[in-house]
């Protein structure tokens, strides 16, 4: 029993001493800042964040678009239906889903594409411009989407 205890003490001591001898090197490595090769920092198609507009800002072009639809005299439900139909089904102005394109409402309107957050921001901004109590709401469901591309 004593031999087993002595063996465990010797093995443990050896392991601890070995670990301590590497501590200085580990500290040196931890102090180094990783360097990223220049060719990796600029990948083709890399997304960049832009601040062209505030996230829910309604641009002059968006205001003209709303005005052109002549929605102000319609009921709220007719406004929503018309806006949705025009934004997603009218030829010449179809917003398309783009999974990796998170943008502000104004940028989404200009580019005619965006992901779920971008499209929601656009609809909330346009709804608020029409005087609706438009807001974000979390949906607890599996994502389902399609693209017309």
Question: Can you describe this structure?
Answer:
There is one protein chain. This protein is mostly helical and 149 residues long. Among the domains are: 9-36; 60-129, no CATH class. It has six helices and two strands. It has helices at residues 2-31, 38-41, 60-68, 76-89, 105-111, 116-129, and strands spanning 96-97, 113-114. The chain has a two-stranded parallel ribbon. The longest helix is centred in the N-terminal third of the chain and has 30 residues, at 2-31. The model is unreliable at 11-20 (pLDDT under 50).
SSE diagram, text form:
Layout: H1 2-31, H2 38-41, H3 60-68, H4 76-89, E1 96-97, H5 105-111, E2 113-114, H6 116-129
Parallel strand pairs: 1-2
Helix pairs in contact: 5-6
The description of the largest β-sheet is:
2 strands, parallel
Spans where pLDDT lies below 50 across 5 or more residues:
11-20
**Multimeric state of these chains?**
single chain
Which structural class do the helices and strands define?
mainly alpha
Distance between the termini: 75 Å
Helicity range of the residues? Answer: 40-55%
Annotation field: number of helices: 6
Could you tell me the radius of gyration in angstroms?
A: 29 Å
- The largest beta-sheet arranges its strands as 1-2
Question: How much beta, percentage-wise?
Answer: under 5%
User: What is the typical, i.e. mean, pLDDT?
Assistant: 75
Helix and strand run: HHHHEHEH
């Amino acid at each position: 029993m004593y031999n087993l205890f002595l063996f465990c003490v010797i093995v443990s001591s050896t392991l601890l001493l070995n670990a301590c001898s590497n501590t200085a090197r580990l500290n040196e490595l931890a102090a180094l800042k990783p360097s990223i090769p220049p060719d990796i920092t600029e990948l083709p198609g890399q997304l960049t964040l832009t601040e062209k507009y505030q996230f829910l800002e309604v641009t002059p072009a968006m205001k003209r678009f709303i005005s052109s639809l002549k929605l102000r005299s319609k009921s709220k439900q007719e406004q929503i239906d018309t806006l949705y139909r025009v934004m997603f089904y009218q030829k010449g102005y179809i917003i398309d889903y783009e999974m990796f394109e998170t943008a502000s409402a104004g940028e989404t309107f200009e580019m005619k594409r965006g992901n779920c957050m971008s499209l929601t921001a656009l609809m909330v901004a346009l709804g608020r411009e029409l005087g609706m109590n438009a807001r974000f709401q979390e949906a607890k469901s599996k994502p389902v989407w399609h693209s017309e591309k």
